[in-house]
Amino acid sequence: MGPADVETLERATLQAVAPQAVETWPGWLLPMDAGTVGRAHSAVPLSHAVPAAEAASAIVARYEARGFAPVFRLPDLAAFEGMQRELQGKGFQRHQPTLTQTTQVERLLAVPTAGPPGELATRPDAAWMAMFLGEGLDPVDGASRSRALGRASGTLFASLREDGQTLACGAASFGHGWLGVHGMRTAAAQRGRGLAGRLLHTMALEARRRGIDRVFLQVDASNQPALALYRRLGFATAWPYAYWRRGDA
Fold it and tell me: What's the predicted TM-score (pTM) here?
């Protein structure tokens, strides 16, 4: 990916998680938020060039001046090894290895699906929220994530229903030339039926209607079932990243 692609993807990411405030430092976005969504309160570079020598200290100072614990979301790339060593010296530790994955809208649309597309809505209904906040999700974290999605502009909420029951859900953000995929959930008893693929197909149709041809998502690097699914659907890793927090954060 080129530098412009990295920048637009990171701007699209923050649009989708809707931090309470976003400051800037040259070449960086500094989102600040009191919730649990990591992307909404971690400094992120807008390029994958070697960061300026003073970046880490300057960004830490900006967060602390606003009363927020400083957190960095750093690509696991050679350009950031020096900053990672500096942060370790400042008491930061690496957490939550994650993969940024991308594909093309047309590639998603080319994947065969069985069954009708899902529904898209401008606001999440009660059934969408029940699925999103359901099994396996910490309720405090889930509530914070749902508030962030609800604040976001340009987000639609996707649902798959059968016989009046919501079986799968997700959120699609549209901005900066990207379709962003977020909050994918499928009821445990319905997994393996291709419902996630149908939801993604629904999102991709809307992206194509809007003239958007690229898709991104972020997935936990240890989530093998999700990684296998996204690989089948044509996603590939653009870059890995992790969060850097102080040991007591």
Answer: 0.92
